[in-house]
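To fix ideas, we reproduce below a protein record of this kind.
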Amino acid sequence: MTDGGPPDLSVVVPAYNEERRLGPTLDAIRDHLHGSALSWELIVVDDGSEDGTAEVAREAAADPRIRLLAADRNRGKGHALRLGVAASRGARVLLTDADLATPVAELDRLAKELDGAQAAAAIGSRAHPEADIAVHQGRVREWLGRMGNRLIRAVAVPGIHDTQCGFKLFDGDKARAAFADARLDGWGIDVEILQYFRRHGWPVAEVPVRWSHQEGSKVGPADYGRVLLELVRLKARSASRASLALFALFLLSSVLLYKDLWTDLGHGYLADSGQDQNQWEWFFSVTADNVRHLRDPLFTTLQGFPDGVNLMGNTPMLGLSVPLTPVTLALGPTVTWALVLTLGLTATAYAWYRLFARWVTENPWAAGLGGALAGFAPPMISHANAHPNFCVLFMIPVIVDRALRLCRPTANVRRDGVLLGLFTAYQIFLGEEVLLLASVGMLLFALSYALARREVVREAGPALAKGLGVAALVCLPLVAYPLTWQFFGSQSYHSVLHGDAAGNSPLAFLKFSGRALLGDEATADKLALNRTEQNAFYGWPLIALAFAITVRLWRHALVKALAGTAVAAALLSLGQRIRIPYTDVVLPGPWRALAHRPLFESVIEGRVGMVCAPALGALVALAVGRLAAAGRVNRSAGLAAVALALLPIVPTPFAVTERAPVPSFFADGRWRPYVKPGESVVTVPLPDPAAADALHWQVRADLGFPLPGGYFNGPWGPDRIGIYGASPRWTSNLLRDVRYGGAIPDIGDAWRAQARADLAYWKAGLVVLPPQDNDDALYTTVTRLLGREGRRVDGVWIWDVGR
């Protein structure tokens, strides 16, 4: 550096409490560089050390080529590197840790790679097959590092196997630009810089190096968690403005849909959810209780007592209810319910947007419109009244994306297959029926695309088959026990029959749903099983638009595949028998071929119509993306047509009603003196799918007692056919009949003996009759069955029948 110009190399050494190791490290670097032909400078950045690190650096700074920069306080490695690189002037910049775990002599190997490969950066790698690891870290630390690197590759810098080795050589100007843009102060700075290089198309070479673990490492176990948090920040920061804006719009839309629920969490109840809100809040509460007490999350006897409930055979969404346990325990299951629905719709729409932006159109706003249609389509909004397992579908686009990646010539079969297996396993713990329907949709798409482009089968088939095999090997061990319990464990069942009227009417695809802006609840109610099963209702304008898009863009294989998927799914959703509207003609439906097959026999076939939502969303995204690049007149006319087709199905906020108050007998714990451990509380009538308020009372009573009856899927009869609720008994049927207006039978010794037998079966400790319609008749019935009058306590009648 005799001419005073910029040096060939700047070496930046971040240091925090490195009094013992810094002197030898600086001597080693100086000795190595002294023997080279390079002009150089060495910058030591003291990151707020509390020992003599600064003094050691000042002594070395007697050499004019060595400088000391001091931070006012300890802020982290990222902040120290940012200071050092900003102060550098070299044509190249070497970053090395103060422990010199990678010997400075490895600089020559990195420089050679930078010269020969014309890369912008050469980074040391301990994960390279040719790396020489002289002293390994402890097993736990090494395992954490390996897992961390895999996560980093998956979410931030795919293809780079070791981002955290502290020995990196950069092109100087590019390094200064990257660090000037960086924001992370911690260990995640390495990932942020490499991601910056990737984003700008600057090649990064990974070079095997010698490395030895040095005692006194400043990386503690907690730092691995901090790196994960920094990755989240990094991922959010790397999102485009369009992505952030679309996520905000999706979130705002979801909040507006559930605004009346959020403003009255203490008393609000989704009006069209039937008994499902009671059921789902119970699922969230029981899962949280099982987690808190380290009990089996796949089974409980708190409902359906004494037989219990096979939770894996129901829909508690363990993939969300387990991680949300702290929310449920701290804020209650109603908050969890509202949170899952609101964020679930948001995440689903955003996931479809990301899929469409990657595979359908480069225009983010067009992809966002398609994502909004797929995420907020009428069937989604219908299920969003009561079925989070059918509207929280954010993993489905992720699974589709990973399957599509396996079809590319450059597919990493092992990596993509492993991720596909993990994603599939997780979706099983969110909803199995949804995964089955999504698989049907993907199969329909694959067949349609293969017919449009036959060569794809030869090109993509082998890699896809291998990837699916890897996915199966990863997924099956993870779900083997839960699925075995579901199908063969206690209270398992074989199928749930829904009758012949579970398919969609052809008219349902052309009409508007009850929640649509131009919807008619009366018309929709006639064409659907109930308001939570309006599985079509896309409206004739959108169907007409999709037809026009298909005709106009028919030459594209993607359009043929999407149209084929939508048409095939719509036909399957019509069920086993298709009644032609306005006639008496009934035709056999294609679902007949699947209706009695394993797994499919429990599916409500009308739900297959939901597969049309992402297909229509992709068609709209593709069309709008092309319109955005069209001439002004065509663009305006086309976008107007899209708006007119979508406006009628814009969803309106969910109706919320006042929730019936919990009897103070349960809310205030007055039941406790009457119920011993192992005894149940028999509410009159017993809870069932038509009236499950008792589940809410049980939750408010901190799950302190089990309930006979309930709202769940369980077995009935010797064939273990699936039914909704517990297997009925004589007494439960009698109480149900009287509640809904049936005459009180002549209750003699036979009825009383049967009641005693049923109460003994239920291990009843207490019979409770809360206020309700026909409660006088119910009181008379229970009094005659038990042979004695009840006692009035806190507004309810009770009969102490315990042991």
About this structure: The first strand starts at residue 9 and ends at 15.
